[in-house]
Design brief:
Layout (H helix, E strand, L loop, with lengths): L1 E6 L2 E6 L15 E10 L12 E5 L6 E5 L5 E3 L5 E8 L4 E4 L2 E3 L6 E7 L3 E10 L5 E11 L1
Parallel strand pairs: 6-12
Antiparallel strand pairs: 1-2, 1-3, 3-4, 5-7, 7-10, 8-9, 8-11, 11-12
Length: 145
């Protein structure tokens, strides 16, 4: 059978082997792509079109802005031991700080309470979007009683 793959209104035809298998390479556009297919056998009979699928192609790393604290900032005294980390990322992305999941608001803003240890504290902040693209930043702050 001749199989036609339709990707964003661009058609590509391929012949299936005797077991019905076929393979074709097509390039996705950035953003949302629509794909479906249909086949025509050697007698000219058309198959029903497959369901139309939407596939999103996203290869851009999500933004990650840390607004508080600043890298290298120092804190002292018991009242500053609980640190609020604030930042913003891409809406819909997830965030971890030192491998702990952080709630992200619908607009991409996040806050996280972190208890500082005496000396240098390293904060590894990672954001991952729905496509698996990641951005990572590490900031260090100092704390003394």
């Amino acid at each position: 059978a001749k199989v036609t793959i339709v990707l964003n209104n661009s058609k590509k035809e391929v012949i299936a082997d005797v077991s019905g298998q076929f393979s074709v390479k097509m390039s996705l556009d950035k953003g949302i792509n629509t794909i479906y297919s249909f086949a025509v056998d050697t007698s000219g009979n058309n198959s029903v079109e497959t369901k139309k699928y939407e596939v999103t192609f996203d290869n851009e790393k999500p933004n990650l802005e840390i607004t508080k604290p600043k890298d290298g900032e120092s804190f002292s005294g018991k009242s500053t031991q609980k640190l609020t980390i604030e930042g913003k990322t891409k809406a819909g992305a997830s965030v971890t700080i030192n491998d702990r999941f952080v709630n992200v608001a619908n607009d991409g803003n996040f806050t996280y309470q972190f208890t500082l240890s005496d000396g240098e504290n390293s904060l590894n902040i990672k954001t991952t979007d729905k496509s698996g693209n990641q951005t990572e930043k590490t900031i260090k702050v100092n704390y003394s009683l």
